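Q: What structure does this chain adopt?
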Amino acid sequence: MAGDELKEFRQGARTTEAANVYISYEKLLAGANSIDYGDLINLPIELLQSRPDVAAMLRRQYPYVLADEYQDVNRACARLLQLLAGPDGRNLWVVGDHRQSIYRFRGASPANMSGFQIDYPAGVRQELANNYRSCAPIVSLCSAAARCMHGANHAQSNDGWRSARAELEAGSAPRISMAVTDSDEAQAEGIANRIADFRCQGIPYSEQAILCRTHYQANALAKLLAKCGAPVHYAQGLLDRPEARDLLAVLQASIPSKSSVIALQRVATISDVGLSPIQGALLVRLTAETGLSALDAIQRSEVEDVFGEIPGFQKLRQLLHVLKDEIDPARCLERFVFHESSYLADLLGAEGASAPRDLAEQAQICAIRQTIELARMFTGSRRRLDPASAPHADMRVSFLEYVRRLMASGSQPALNLGDDLGGFDSVAMITVHAAKGLEFPVVFVPNLSEGRFPPRSREPLIAEPPGMAQDNSGDGDEQCLFFVAISRAREHLVLSRSTSSGDATLAPSRLITLIDGGLHELGITETRWADTQTRDAPEREVHADVNPVGKPVFTSSQLTAYLQCPRQYYYSRLGLDMAVDHPATVQQVPKTLQAALTRERIRPVRQPNRLIARFDTVHICVEADMIACDVEGRLVIAKHLMGKPQDRDQADPLLALYRRAADDSAPSQPSRIEIHYLSTGDRRVVARSKKYEPGRLLKFVEAAAALEHGEYPARPAEPGLCARCPYLVACPT
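A:
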């Protein structure tokens, strides 16, 4: 079985598994006498289809039916609307714009717009062509984009809008600008400068908005803008806030479990305790060696001998002692914040009960309040589900597990300032999805690069059933999102992109081609924002017995772990390694593969550590999953992966390091780099790339230099890594 046939087989297997899970899920709902969101739509459909008398009664009761945002109606909602309005839809009125269909990932289909007169033959279509929001140049640009958009609705009128508002003075700033920068930092600096320019022209910060494609991008850009001094408000995930992490660390440290020592690094350095980072690191190492809980470990003589005379250490011991029996996570946090520490008072200042001085301080207080509210909500739901045992169970561990699930699933609550924003003038930073229906005098749309807007596409784990998707428009979703983004602006639109991020080169977004013609018609050309700031050297942390000493020699596994996340690597070197048990089937896979390699007369090399990649500043010992020789004497170095082959697998920098080690260690011996896929049995040979491999090798050289200097920033290599990290609560955000 190969190619498309194998792909279809896997999709079918996953779909069958999901269907079986859904059957069990439906049984559980029925047993609990509960329904979910889908049932709120499906059950009324079943009722109206099976009971025409009920449908007739509702039509008499509601003779007129109005539906907004019709382009975002999914198949089930469209059917419900038909049943409510009647087959002829005589008194049905809908409004929608197929160019703004941005919820297809929820099953919405703009095909409802093109098929309206098929569903309702007596229906009449009327184009709404006047735009009362934006100035003429922005309306012209949106219309140009609309003419280039494709998809299931391309047969409809795509002429766009006409500006139907009086022109206002634009001031000195152009209505539309398109900027390019050399780096993410320069892009943030350019946006910060334009924000300040608009403010000087009389446009308050609160009337400016930055629209990002994803929350991950928004969070990264918000941090860069904060360094530039821009007053930006981003409703980031609550659990990403440092205050939330502080409280979660207090919870974990108070648990009578070995895992509690992980949180000591963070708890030891909060204001009440006041240990230095170096002291905190040493405390974690000493307590981890005991194999005890945090409270038991800090009472051991070997720990007391080192920290006994430090006042903060005594405060830490007292704090853990009073919290150890607070099994309710909300009450534990309330006791810490309001009774056993000065944590909140330190944020409020000497006045104690004074109002927040700025937006940043307000966000801190809201994060504390909402974290406690989240714990209280969790406790309440557990008690309702299990009223007998829940009051006596320690729910701190289960709450921390719940928090991890929220983060891993992308469902964590956002920091909600709500009415608390009153009095603070700040720039809103939101995702394009959240901007739907909003408008601002000034709109920034950053990160217009491939892989960002649009983001990298991912194959769905479960394909839509045949016939479910009513259109297949390729980039249609992203085109609609881009159209929504640029059409939020009333007076000024600022588009920008960077050409690189770290070591990666970024190509212009293909979405820019939608507006190329419009920009040309308006005489707008791309401008370059210069990077005028001097970058500070990375913050360095030096901890005893953590940094390598002597000759700079590292293993490939060390540097790979560092590149995955420097901070996670640092915590693992403190002696807090978390063992992971693999299922027996996974453990058997290498044996099966080895048997297959033996049949192909490939034998392992007895001393694989002799493969060393030699650079001017560092030597790297390569630890590959397999280092062997084939029957022709060719050196074979392989990386093992689970899952199916992907093109991006061959871009792994580690493969370039394998080749460099082979070239340096055995220059006269031919070599071959391979990827072995354990779950499928596939083997792929990795071709040499003179264009890309030097840059990939540079990552390891730079990682070695950073390790030499004790640099351990919290910099995960991919979104979602933090939720899976065992050191989540200890890590600085």
